[in-house]
Amino acid sequence: xxxxxxxxxxxxxxxxxxSSVKPAKRKPSRIQKENRKRILDAALxxxxxxxxxxxxxxxxxxxxxxxKPNLIYYFDSxxxxxxxxxxxxMSEWLNPLDSMDPDGAPxxxxxxxxxxxxxxxxxxxxxxxxxxxEIVQGAPRMLPHLxxxxxxxxDRQCAVIANWMEQGKIARMSPAHLVFSIWAVTQHxxxxxxxxxxxxxxxxxxxxxxxxxxxxxxxKLLTP
Length: 224
Prior knowledge:
CATH architecture of the largest domain: Orthogonal Bundle
Mean pLDDT: 86
CATH superfamily of the largest domain: Tetracycline Repressor, domain 2
Strand content: under 5%
């Protein structure tokens, strides 16, 4: 039995002419994967600082220590880099909301969600600012993803929260505006990190104090 080759044999079209078939696309090498990661990490910092409109390929190339032609080999435009970052971010950003268990203890599930959002704001401030900048601009590159991915998840989890409220397990309020409030409060610590660092001098306790306060506030709000 012959082994499977990476190329398909030539075929014939309806006129009997031989039609060429492109070889199977090769997987990226380790170096190519590392270079893509290097570009994306550098671009994340530039986009988070300057926004999409204020960012250029030259800035990204300089930030990742590459010549611009080398960068274009991996991404042909700054929009391609931006979309790649947003797609990855969206998946990671939605995971905590998706993980909220309808069969879990309601107050514990919401508090776990809040803690994870606070943790993400602390660990990934650049990603949060990248997302915020995109939304402030009207989500020109992310709107289809918001409609196809975020909206169904948001509606489903709001229905879960509403059911908990109907059962009297957490205090009654608008589930949608509760989620909006969680987003607003938790992501504030990432999006306004520069302001917070000026207003609060003690960097070592800033994160712990914030998490304790936010958790206590929402726990009091949600307790029936």
